[in-house]
Amino acid sequence: MDSFVKMEQVTFTYDNNTILNKINLTLKKSKSYALIGKSGVGKSTLLHLLAGLLIPTEGEVLIEGNRIQHPSKDIGFMFQDLGLFPWLKVCDAISMPIKLDKRKSKQEIKEKVTALIREVGLSGMEHKYPAELSGGQKQRVALARTLITEPDLLLMDEPTSTLDEMTKEQIQQLISEQVEKRQTTLLFVTHNIEEAVLLGEYILLLRNNGDIETIANPLFGVDRAKENLSFYKACIDVRKRLAAVQE
Fold it and tell me: Where is the ABC transporter domain positioned along the sequence (predicted)?
């Protein structure tokens, strides 16, 4: 399968500090990747480079052979802090990325937003403000807003880190369903090893020297994976690899 996204010898320097050094990365189309690594290694910076929110100091970031130099509707980014504006109702927050698209009528936008609200389980919440929503509901709004442009590449920074266990499992299931339905390429950063094994077809371990180890995940897509002893063995294996990097 041909590469969909590539980072070629990418270095990013900020304030005379090298955050990422000569990164090489290939993502295949319609695959799911979990990005792990110790704190401060540059995982979030890597996502920002792929999103076009940062420009590499050296090297190239490519999607289908085209250089990424600015944000695009083809690349969706779900931020760690969600970025919901307190003065926007749910329906307005979700529609915001496509409101200026002159190719779509107001009716088309309304229908698309209504369908997404239903898909992510927010029916009846259309006119609520962020302050009136639970943590899980805010995550659903952020996910719907990210999906509204139908991105080919979906980037997520710690998508469930602030949630309780029950809500976390619900959001993980929702992400899995939406990515499978849309055949979107997913790359998400997580510190949760179980989440990496649950949602990542491949687990990418980012090291300090810029090397990225790719770990194929045989349990990806297995029904009720957490009930399988092999799931926890896989988590232990990934955790050991991560611990070895941190020593």
Answer: 5-233
